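Interim report, section 4.2 (structural modelling).
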Amino acid sequence: MTSVIQSIDYFAIAPPLALALTACVVLLLDAFLPRGPRVRGTLGLVTLAGVLAALALLVAQAVRGQTLATFCVPAPVACSYVVDHITLIFAGLALVAGVVVILLSMEELAGGEIPVGEWYFLLLCTLVGAITLPASRDLVMLVVALELVSLPVFVLTALRRYDGRASEAAVKLFLVSVVSTAIMLFGVSLMYGVSGTLHLAGLQQGLVGNPLAQTAVPSAALVLIIAGFAFKVAAVPFHSWAADVYEGASLPVAALLSVISKAAGFAGLILVLVVAQPLTSGIWVPLVAVIAALTMTVGNLLAMRQAHAVRLLAWSSVAQSGYILAPLGAGPDGAGAAVVYLVFYAAMNLGAFAVVMLVSRADSRLGGGTLQDYRGLIFRSPAAALALAFFLVCLAGLPPGLAGLFAKVAVFRELVDGGVAWLAIVMAINTVVGLYYYATWTAALFSPAPSGAPELPRARSAQVAVGVAIAVVATVVFSVSPQLVFDVGSLSALG
Amino acid sequence: MTTWTGWLTVALLVIPTLGAAGLFVLHKPTESALKAYGVIVSGAALLPAAALALTFDYGDAAAIQHELNAPWIPGLDLRFHLGVDGISLPLVVLTALLTFLCFVYLLGARAVGRRRELVFALLVLDIGMIGTFLALDLLLFFVFFEVVLIPMYFVIAIWGGPRRRAAAVKFILYTLLGSVVLLLGLLLIWSQTGTLDIVALAGAHGAGLPRGVQIVAFIAVGVGLAVKTPMWPLHTWLPDAHTEAPTVGSVLLAGVLLKMGTYGFARIAIPVLPDGAHAVAPWLGAFAVVGIVYGALACLAQRDLKRMIAYSSVGHMGFVLLGFATLTPVGINAALFGNIAHGLITGLLFFLAGAIKDRYGTADMSALGGGMLGRLPYLGSLLTFACIASLGLPGLAGFWGEMLALLGAFQPAPGLSRPLFLVFMAVGGLGTLLTAAYFLVMLSRVTHGSPGPLVPTDGTDVRKYEYSAWVPLVLLILLFGLWPKALLSITDPAVQTLLGAR
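Predicted structure of the assembly:
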């Protein structure tokens, strides 16, 4: 006797639920509390508390250690929402990154030009999407979660009102995102058409009996879905929005785009390609390999030419997307290395954005400034300069930034093991190109400021400093004991 | 596996690390406090090196001693595996000694800007250099190999000469490109054998590695190491870096960093990939002898003293590589001997060039004019001594490495084309003549003759702190020149094992 009413495992969906409730509370508080600087701070703390609560619930799920599933249909049993190893990794990553982004936001919002309640509400909505997405196990849920990640970001970008660049960035992001969603939906509908199921677990089985499965339709559907996710992670040829949007958006949003939104894109990609595996890997692996090679090359070449800090970080994060994709270009087994790289990348990149935030607030210039502004930072704010140098060296993948080195080694190993030597060589060359601009920036930190330059104030902001500290601690821990990350990203666990 | 004396190797790394960390704690240290600090820390780091040399079992020099083996990152099979044998022990001691002498030299050097940062950079450099020679795990070797890059970059870029920025960028980009290729080669070995343990890999003598893979891996690893060594035609970063670097930077670059490349051949490339080495050896030999002749000809054309010494390194490293290319015990012993000799002699030469530059304000040979022996007799004599040692006069350390390398080429390993190596030997022999020529030309222009118009701004001859930095080097050059067995008896057993089954 099947019931029409689904039973819901509330423990499984507790983290996104907590975030959603906090979002509502924030919106209500904003409406009913009097305006003022103190309220801005209060709302930030409430948001932070909500995210920490969600993180605590996530830890509780992880400690319990069993796979939770809900929203299931009977016969054959398939669930739309599953909390397993991969969910926990991606959700944990998104929430920790979320904490840092909120800390950066508190500084950004202190100016009072941006409506606070809306900001935190939208931020929490994005986070709900980011932790729902890795748990999604059907195509519709996947698309909805991905949109939940993307839609609030347009508004967050545009919330820096009365700024032409922000509006332009928001429109660009909106158009690109809508087009990518459309493409992906088309792919999803084709996939549904040929397989007759929406559940990832049933895709492979669904394709077996269908005569259409022998045609090019499933491949076309998969390529379209890949293209949709490629937009989200800013992979070539869908990368061109990155620099303008990162530069136009306020820094916390750029950090969010480069880490949380990107992680969501990769989670979706891994779920569709590796976990569901509707088609044999022979079809998509070469495609992903080519995309990875192009992404890292184009990203690095563009980053090399940038004089603006945030634009440089934007293109460098495109290049890093290429490195994350690369192990998937060696086969489905590469997913572990991709996750490992993503975790390392998140810590390093967030840290870099946090320091840029700290520095750009200090000289009251919006958008992070040019690399020239970073000359002599070591004399003005030694701690900030050392932290930034460490993050850049990590992103470059050099000791003492061991986290980045081990991440790259993990990817190289996957490529050499998987027999895609050409991609390994492309990545090797790219690593050197990347070193060039990371090294240039790092060197600027330590060279004396040009004479006659205005004396810039020391960077001070408690919240941002805490954000930097979180990133530094994470990166140092990953450098000294990277095994932690290798454990969570281990292949067997991704099964 | 892990012996109780393993802590000695760890101490070699921990002391400079603590020293570097301690710099953060010091509050507004004075110039003289920092001078003393550097000497004390590097002196403390010299103690475990000395203890290592004293407790080393010379009867069993082929075996890995003072071993420490602990897992670090199981996910990458990376183990924290350290140890010394006859190949690495001399280099470890040389590194600790040269670092210490650099700090001694800095005691008296004129006011150095941002001395705290300089001390920090040199201590981090020390960690990387020592670690490279101690590491017995492919990835750990690579990590330490890379650790030296950033401090050296800053040493050149901050305390270097007028064109330091370009030289530093060139140095780091070149060596990084090499490192990435090296990493790919190491990962290829790993993916084929499933282990990163250098001891196990060397013990297998290439068993389980198909010949094609060995050749590819040897080329990748070899290119990576050859950039650092440097081997002609990958040497172009070296003249700029050595010329622009400050004195201590040049000393450590020439004295230790170049050795990391050649050490890699002896520790990884040749023992782990014997078939690959066999296939590539003729090419290695050819590039080596071209480097010898090219280095010597380039030296003849130089006007700047530091630049000339830099190019002479290309030639000397050519002899070291030729020694490796013969794949015979004689040749490889020669290479290891040449390594140490070059470290001592060129280290001394760069110290002297720095001292000359400090006194005259230039290192341009034609501007210096002649007559240094008349004006600064002690400095002039030391320069003469170092140059004669470098050109390979019998009785000084430079001789044995070159002579034995040529001897090795006379009778290369079975399977290698003997006529080809005889040609290499002949060309190498020509190179020794050219080497003698350029050093003698230089001496005749700088030390002999009547004093030129340029009067040194600082007319003091060799100072006390300079003596204390240079005399140990002079003594060691004499020791190894007169009693080469002191070094060969340590390296030979290890070399025999390394060539092992073949």
